[in-house]
Structures are given as structure tokens and as C-alpha cells.
Amino acid sequence: GGPGAPSTFGLFQEFGPFLLNEDSMRTEDFLQSGIPTPMFNRWTWANVTSLCEIDSPPPMGASFCTMGNGTAGSTGGPAGDPYSCGPWTDSSVAEANHKAHKSF
Asked: What is the pLDDT of residues 28-58, one digit of tens each?
């Protein structure tokens, strides 16, 4: 990810093995289900390297916390405010990402 955009955006719009684009909503499956069809990306970065996409810090993108941090207005969960998982700093995000990569 990057400032203002989760990693999942890049995964499905730029570098991942499958893309969600205009063609995703023109398939027979989409017309029947309403769910966009992932389209093969022949230029995926996965052709030349391994990919590990992490949305961080929670609650960015598809990542989330299950409980708030106890402050007023903190709701937790995927719809939580930016502080619903506690305060994040560059150092704490780097440490969390390092742990996630090691466990991968």
C-alpha cells in the first residue's frame, strides 16, 4: 500500500496476477451474479517474483482490529476510525509488518 491506498488496490489494479477492471463487469458470470470476474493479468509482477500483499496498519484496506482502543469514538472493526486499533507510528507499523512477513 501507500499513502491513501491499501495494498489490495495495487493487487487488483496494477501488479497482481488478476485484475478487476471494466472487462470484469462484462462477463456472463458478472451479469448473473453481480460479482466482478477477476481477469488474468499477463503483466503481473508474479511472473518474475513472489508477492506478499499486506494491508497495514489496521484498519487500512481489508485489515481490521476486533476491538477499539478504549478511547471515545473508537469503534474497532473494519469500519473503525484510524485509531481504532491503537496509535500507529512509523516504527510500530514497521515492526508489525516485519512480524507479518516473518510469519508468512
From this structure: 999 999 999 999 999 999 999 998 887 776 6
Cell 476491538 belongs to residue: 67
Domain ranges of the chain: 1-51, 54-104
What letters, b where the CB count within 10 A reaches 16 and e where it falls short, cover 8-29?
bbbbbeebbeebbeeebeeeee
- Cα 44 from Cα 42, distance rounded (Å): 6
Per-residue burial over 39-57, b if 16 or more Cβ lie within 10 Å, else e, is bebeebeeeeeeeebbbbb
Alpha-carbon distance values, 65 to 39, 56, 77, 81, 90 (Å): 30, 11, 5, 10, 18
Distances in Å between the alpha carbon of 23 and those of 11, 31, 35? 16, 12, 12
pTM, whole model, 2 decimals? 0.58
Instruction: List 39's β-bridge partners, or say none.
Output: 19
